[in-house]
Structure formats: structure tokens, C-alpha cells
User: Which sequence fits this backbone?
């Protein structure tokens, strides 16, 4: 599953930090799991050993964005005590604003990310980003730059950034966020502090949802399993009802595939690709859908192995059981192989509509 947090959801990072801190001790970082990350960053702050650049890597929705923004909040605090922001100074109050564009929420905090219709982060964007970081701190603390989807840096952009990393400036920190550290140039990785985020146990996500968000245990169990170790995805399912319903709709389409003939399957594909969108946007959307469908196959194989407690789509268990009774393991594995092949076709610029039709034919 690879739904990403972006656009309006980025504002949720600031809301999450504010709400989380109200329910936790001031010294607690707003992370569910991955305690080794907060422990390392806390120690670095206390010992005043802040690197010029960091790489936060690992699967989507583990809290990398949250950790980066909170780390920035601590460094930018004018009256912090060791690794704890005061929550009272002008800088800290900037982080309590939960409206408007996060891009302009703090005068010493800058964000760089790929535009939706673009394939890469351009060198022009990086040069502007570097220029802003080179200015003196407005609040006499740090200058922080956060790069989302750092693996999307163009070759020229990466080279421009490398020059800055080779000559780091005092009280300037750049945080690169990526699920694919291997996609970053080795020259950049070797000059950065690498922090690896790992999927979180379902019971930890469940307990957080029950204790901190006060949702029912049955709902917490559903969202904890559905998130497959990704706390921020669980939060997004809860906070964004439209997003959750869209996920369920995609699940239902694939489940219906198992009970329909080829013509009916083609009919179900109608709204999945949009000719008005760019090819890049369509490819991104279909890749996310395929990831959801791969999760369904994973659950069916887990049921076949009687690993019932590990399935992620608990909410459609009854439908999965019916499918498992009709399809043998070999058939499910063949479908799984077809889905992985479909991903390769999309990345090779095969028409998204044709890729979806191929999946429907091979069911």
C-alpha cells in the first residue's frame, strides 16, 4: 500500500503535532513506534551535535514527515530546554497554526517538493531553496529545509544540492525524506545522517488509536490492520472519510472481479483512469490501485495459510473467505504475478487503460 500524504494532508502534520503534544508529556516526540528515531534525534539535540543534512528513509506513512517537522520545531525554538520546545515563544506558536499553507508557516522553515504534474524536482527549485537557506535566520536560531520525495530530484538538481552539502553552513540543516534511499546519489547519501523508519506493530497502532484518539476497539483493530504498519495511514483513514471510502471502493471493484465475467470486469474499470489527467498522474493513480489489489491477494493467501490474524482488510473478511473457497493457491499466485507485471508495464509507459484491461482479462 503506498498512499502518500500530500497536498491538504500536509496541514494535518501540524495539527497532529499540536494534538499529540496535548495528550503526551512535553518531552515525547509525535511518533507512533520508531522510538529509535526520536531517541537518536533527542540525543543529538542534547549533545548539540546537529548534522548539516539528514535522510529520513522508509516506506510511506510511517511518520517521516511528522518527525522532520517536529525536529525542525525543536531546533527553531528560541527557549528550548534540551530536546523539548517551550511551546510559548514566537517560533513555537508558528507551529500551532492549523490553517493556511504549511509552506509559509515559519520564516526559517522551507519546504521543497515535486509539483504534481512534474516528474522531477527541477534545478531551478533547488537553487531557490538553497538561496533561502543561505540567508541569516530571522529568529536567530536555525534555518531548516525539508525536501519531500527527495528521490525525485533531477540529476542537475541533485548536483546543485550536493555542492551545498559539501560545504555545510553553521545552524543550517536539510532533511531529505524518501522511501527509496537507493534512488539518491551515493554522493548525497554519504554526506548525510541516515535514519531508517520501520513499519510499526499493529498492536502499537491499535493502542495509540484507542488511548489517544479514543476510537472504539473494533474500529481501532480495523484501521490498525488496514494501515499495514503505517500509523499515518491509519490516521488519514480516520480523519479523511472521503479517502477511506475511496479505498473501500477500490477494494470492492477488485473483489467484484472474482465474481464477474470479462465484459462486466471491463465495465468496472470505467472510472479508474481519467483521460483529462496527465499520463504521469494516471500512472501514479493506477499504481496506488494496484497496491491495494495486491493487498487483497496477500490477504487471500494468508487465509489459505490460516494466518487469519494477519490479514489487513478485516472489514471485507466475509468476502475474502468466499473467494478463497473458489480459487486455489496457484490461481492466486498467478494473479499476484500479473499485478506485479502490470506495475512494470506502467513504469515502462504502457497506456494505463490497457494495463487495467490486461489485469481484468487475466483474472
Assistant:
Amino acid at each position: 500500500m503506498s498512499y502518500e500524504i500530500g497536498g491538504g494532508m500536509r496541514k494535518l502534520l501540524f495539527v497532529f503535532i499540536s494534538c499529540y503534544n496535548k495528550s503526551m508529556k512535553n518531552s515525547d516526540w509525535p511518533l507512533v513506534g520508531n522510538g529509535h528515531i526520536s531517541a537518536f534525534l533527542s540525543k543529538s539535540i542534547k549533545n548539540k551535535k546537529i548534522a548539516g543534512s539528514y535522510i529520513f528513509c522508509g516506506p510511506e506513512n510511517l511518520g517521516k514527515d511528522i518527525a522532520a517537522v517536529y525536529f525542525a520545531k525543536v531546533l527553531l525554538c528560541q527557549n528550548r530546554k534540551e530536546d523539548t520546545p517551550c511551546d510559548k515563544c514566537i517560533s513555537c506558536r508558528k507551529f500551532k497554526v492549523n490553517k493556511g499553507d504549511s509552506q509559509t508557516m515559519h520564516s526559517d522553515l522551507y519546504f521543497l517538493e515535486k509539483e504534481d504534474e512534474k516528474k522531477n524536482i527541477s534545478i531551478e527549485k533547488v537553487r531557490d531553496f538553497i538561496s533561502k537557506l543561505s540567508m541569516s535566520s530571522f529568529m536567530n536560531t536555525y534555518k531548516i529545509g525539508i525536501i519531500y520525495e527527495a528521490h525525485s530530484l533531477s540529476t542537475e538538481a541533485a548536483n546543485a544540492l550536493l555542492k551545498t552539502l559539501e560545504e555545510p553552513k553553521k545552524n543550517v540543516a536539510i532533511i531529505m525524506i524518501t522511501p527509496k534511499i537507493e534512488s539518491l546519489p551515493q554522493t548525497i547519501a554519504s554526506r548525510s545522517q541516515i535514519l531508517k523508519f520501520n513499519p510499526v506493530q499493529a498492536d502499537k497502532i491499535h493502542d495509540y488509536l484507542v488511548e489517544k484518539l479514543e476510537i472504539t476497539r473494533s474500529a481501532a483493530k480495523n484501521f490498525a490492520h488496514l494501515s499495514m504498519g503505517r500509523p499515518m495511514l491509519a490516521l488519514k483513514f480516520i480523519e479523511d472519510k472521503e479517502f477511506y471510502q475511496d479505498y473501500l471502493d477500490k477494494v470492492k471493484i477488485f473483489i467484484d472481479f472474482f465474481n464477474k465475467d470479462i465484459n462486466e470486469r471491463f465495465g468496472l474499470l470505467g472510472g479508474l483512469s481519467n483521460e483529462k489527467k496527465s499520463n504521469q498522474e494516471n500512472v501514479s493513480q493506477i499504481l496506488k490501485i494496484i497496491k491495494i489489489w495486491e493487498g487483497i491477494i496477500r490477504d487471500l493467501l494468508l487465509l489459505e495459510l490460516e494466518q487469519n490474524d494477519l490479514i489487513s482488510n478485516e472489514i471485507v473478511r466475509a468476502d475474502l473467505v468466499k473467494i478463497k473457497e473458489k480459487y486455489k493457491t496457484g490461481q492466486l499466485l498467478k494473479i499476484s504475478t500479473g499485478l506485479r507485471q502490470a506495475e512494470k508495464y506502467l513504469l515502462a509507459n504502457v497506456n494505463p487503460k490497457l494495463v487495467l484491461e490486461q489485469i481484468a482479462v487475466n483474472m
Remarks:
- The longest strand covers residues 172-178.
